[in-house]
Amino acid sequence: MSSRVKKDKKQTSSIDFLPLHNKGTLEAVRILRDIARESYGPFGKLNMVQNTIGGHVTVTSSSNRLFQAISVSDVIVKLITTSLQGHVATHGDAGLWGTIMAINLIEKSPIENTHPHLLVDIYEMLLQYSMDFLKSPECPAVLDIDISDMNTMRDVIRCVVNSKPACGLLEYEQDNICSIILEAFLKSIPSSCDNSLKFFSVNFVSMEGLGANNMKLYDGVLLEAPSIPTYLKNPLSYLNLPVSEIPVAIVTTSMGGDSEDFLDIKYESGEQTDGHALVLDTILKGLANMVQSSVRVLICQKVAHPRVKAYCTEQGVMLLDRLGISHMESLCQLTGARKISSFSSYIDEGLYGSIDSANHLVMAGKSYVHLTRTQSGVTTVLLAGRREEALNELKVVCDTALRSLRQLLWQPKMLYGGGCWETILSAHINYLISSKMSELTEQLGCSRHQLRQAAEAFTHSLHDIAMATSDTKLNHKLDMKYGHHWIAENGNDDYASCMCGAITRDNALVFKMLGNLGIMDINSDTAPEKAIDIEDGRRMLLDNLPAHLGALLMAVNTASAILKIHCIVKDRN
Amino acid sequence: MSVTISSCCGVLEEVCQLLEKSFGPNALQVMICTQTGQLLVTSDGMTILRSIHPSHPILRFILASVTSHHGFTGEGSKTFILTLRDMLQRIEKSELTVDTSDIHCNETRIKLAVALHHIQYDIIPNRIIPKILFHATKLEIETNKKDVIIAEAKCLVHTGISSKESRVKASELTDLTADWIFNSSPSVENLKETLEKLSDHFSYFCIDEPGGHVLDSIIIPGILIDRNFVTTLPMKIKNISYVILDCDFNIGNSTDTTSAIFQINSELNLTMAYSWKKRLMEKVLFKLQQKNIDVLLYTGKVCDTMKQLCNDRGIAVVQYLQKEDLDFITTATGISAINDFRDILDETIDKTNESHQAKENSLNEHTAREHIKFIGIAQTIKMLTIGGKQYVNLVPFFQHSSRFQPHTLVLYGPTKGLSKQYSTIAAGGVKTIQMWLQNIDHSETDLGNNQKNFSQYSRNPGECQDLFDKHLPTPECQTTINNPNPKHDLKNTVSRETVFSSANTDCSSTQNEAVYFSENSQPQFEELLKVYSLPGGGAFEFLVHYHLMDYIAHISSNDGDCYLKTACQIIAEGLLCTPRLLHRNSYSVKDTRNNFIKLQHLVMGSMRSNDLIYLDGKTGEIKQVSENNTQVKESLYSKIHLLNNILTSVQQLLKIDRVVSVKSIGSKSGFINQQSDSESDASST
């Protein structure tokens, strides 16, 4: 007998005071900020992430995939990434925006001469003002979207696709995927609904090795069918009889010969009795009833026994098994069938669904079965790309784009992109501070200097994000009339239009340099106006409103939590 | 290892360094990185203390005391440690306790402990508390003044929360916590019972979800079950019948177990064994369908056949309920689980059962014939998605006679750690209100000569009430309570009665005429329930300090009294640690803060003229207590409880002479090697 019993002694936790004064922490935070900043916007650079011991290489500029790929040891950085990951899981977008904003607030905050509590109170006041401002009906930073205008809807998708260079799409390929996503979205909207709107599912099938010009939208569902040889021509012709509908059954229980219906007891049986065979017989009897009801397609979530497969082949029933739970929902939506969970009880014919056609497709050397039904809005997008990483990025982009479009149905508003909404918001904050300075200092219990410093930290953080949207480091300007963001091309003073494209150059416009614009540098007599004369058909850069509101909320809260941390206790056990 | 006062102070030093900056309304936060990698950001004292894992036995002993105190009151852990440290430091510096080289317990420490005991059980309850009651606010809880009680409760809860979160979040969390508690309690009479239920099943009634903002937090009527429907959703939208099934179709009854092996000889027997479970399920579900049951809450796993059968009969099923979930659902809905499916088949669940246990226990005649219900009717049962997770929301019918109307508080936070922090804050709020509703309980104190008076009053609540009323002045002022949250503009008028306990006369007369309350003499809810609160900001500590110093001046300076005098000074000075720290952590733009000693003199001066003032923890300014600005309130009961616990801990530490640790056998390096079985190795250990 050999055993070693080690008596573990609990270790006292380590305590580190003032973490924001720690060089290592500050360095880690700056690195994260730089990664996020460099990846932000249409000119963002790609990040290649790999574990030091090797393994899968992730190439991305998307916050969703980036935060999942990088491993973080510093606790402050971990708090930031965890917080923003939660935001991205909810909203699907603006993760990088939130990261840059949170870290900028932490770095720019005047913690030396302002108590952290007071700073947090000021930031929360500014946050509340910003949320109220962005949600107000006549907000100058928000554009009302006409969801019946397909060009505008396509622009919305293009803004999402454009911002992710890791997809590796050329311009015409981007146009193609935008059209495909828009069409899939429109088809997924049900024609009628009761209290709750439930979209038809949009599935994605990735095809590595094909060029992006092969991307296509299919009505119905595409299922991989490795059991059908690729060289066969029309192997499913026996299904497409001249009937309007092909009956379909969807089974979610195992057809492999095992069953949960047996009691959990020990039993012995003789040679003539076999539980396994009994279960199979029950399944085959159920199948026989299905065949009698003219079921021609049998879809099984789990595995099917070879005898079951043989029986189906004999009876001319197409069997698709081992599909997994991921396809079940879309197959139920497509066919209108209800799931059959057991063969032990009577199977009502009302549980069956139907399809209009089942075709065999061969793509990139693989067999697929294409099931369609006219009344259903279920679609499948075939994503094609030469690299696996490009495909993974494209899938995330498509998902984000669909989410943005669905949100537009509830709230048809978008923010002016290209850094414009950030500069408009910062201009309004400057106006608020300069016009209500006395009132705010009284309410917050701070000095004018403290309020000004904190507000400048807030607005400079917004300016920094606005400047990150382009690759030029010079000539970022703000117009005093509308508050939009402008950059001059080729380093001269030629500002044709603002970054979002809403406003064209007007000689009456007065500009000021962005960067270190202080509260007192802005004309505080009037707030910036809303741009009203926007040319129809103009291609604009737009940002998702709910996602960016959520990111702003998350960033300020995370920064506030970190600013108030005075020590870190690490459990070493 | 010998234990000296300086060693006790030493072990507390690092902990206090951690807690000092996290004290008061300007508290900074501590980030805790747990064993599992979870990150918590908190200023909650108990959470911070639990994360330390101290190795020193004295520190562990002290933390055990704090844990037990916090478990009862839900607050005060930081104040406990900081005040304890301060008192120990004063004892260390005191002339009476100069540690000698003698390793045995110093006789002076024992005498000091005895003096502290006398102060704790005689002087404080008989002389100090009656004087404090003069300044306490007593709120009469009447059933038709629920909004007044809500406003007062919000004040108390806000006091605790404002030290943990920023202004906006503190306000939001205060509203949420108070609204949740009072929504769950249909009337004031049931408030205590409601608080007990919320506290006992807190993790079910309060759910924290990451990935959102606290401003998105909501209160949902009914309960949330962390499960999903495995069948189709309920067809009906309202008036849904449901049962809870806690038995296994597999082996029938949970008590039926067998290790027998069954022999199946023929195909027919095999078929019957195969179909036995299905037939049983069919029978049970048929009976349930006859009773129009729409939803089945099941503790086991729903097999495929059962799923099919339930779908066919239109019965929605929730599976995998835990035993702990059953207890919670029964508490919330009053519906008991069916433990044997035979009860369904025999239709026993339709009959009213008498509670046999209640028959034996004849103390409470109301529950003698208790109806145990197995079939519940819910307003609605539906799926809810909260923070990416799916829950079953069961809303029982809220009748007018319902004593408890369960509501669930859903708190959002950016990360799991922060959302957990918010739920800890809400738990603290529940305990704060529980503490506030406690009467001053003198049953735990040793009253000495006044024992006779106490027992007399405890047996005769009527006499107690008469004596109490004798000292009541006529209500002098109508005052206004302003709700601390400007969103809810509640302005209520309440009459405040301050209690005189002849405190203005000499101390000796106080002994016989002081008013005592105990749990046994607690008035029924037909009478008015009286609760006491004091302003925060160190008001209680200043009061005790002042009256103790006053008492010291009255003590004659003979030898027997020198320990008593020193002990009084230690307590009086030690308690000022709280306002001193509040002052240190405050910040003010106007910079009108003076040296704390100057402030102390101002406070004492005010107290001489019976004015109560307190320290504004935000700005460090001294403020006069008036009806309009007393937004920071603390329960008097919990402050007294805290003081008692601190004094008990000090006495215990004074009496500890040494720590003796036991090493395990044969563990020179803490490693027990059992590779060898030889006797010689065994004998060497």
TrEMBL record, chain A:
InterPro entries: Cpn60/GroEL/TCP-1, GroEL-like_apical_dom_sf, GROEL-like_equatorial_sf, MKKS, TCP-1-like_intermed_sf
A GO BP entry: developmental process
Molecular function in Gene Ontology: ATP binding; unfolded protein binding
Coiled-coil ranges (or none): none
Pfam families named in the record: Cpn60_TCP1
Cellular component GO terms, alphabetical: cytoplasm; kinociliary basal body; nucleus
Domain of life: Eukaryota
PANTHER family, per database record: MOLECULAR CHAPERONE MKKS (PTHR46787:SF1), SYNDROMES PUTATIVE CHAPERONIN-RELATED (PTHR46787)
Protein name according to UniProt: Uncharacterized protein
TrEMBL record, chain B:
Annotated coiled-coil segments of the chain: none
Listed GO MF terms: ATP binding; ATP-dependent protein folding chaperone
Signal sequence annotation: none
The UniProt record lists the keyword Transmembrane helix: no
GO biological process, one term: chaperone-mediated protein complex assembly
Alphabetical UniProt keywords: ATP-binding, Chaperone, Nucleotide-binding
Top-rank taxon, per record: Eukaryota
Any Pfam family: Cpn60_TCP1
PANTHER family: BARDET-BIEDL SYNDROME 10 PROTEIN
Family classification: Belongs to the TCP-1 chaperonin family.
Protein name: Uncharacterized protein
Organism: Owenia fusiformis
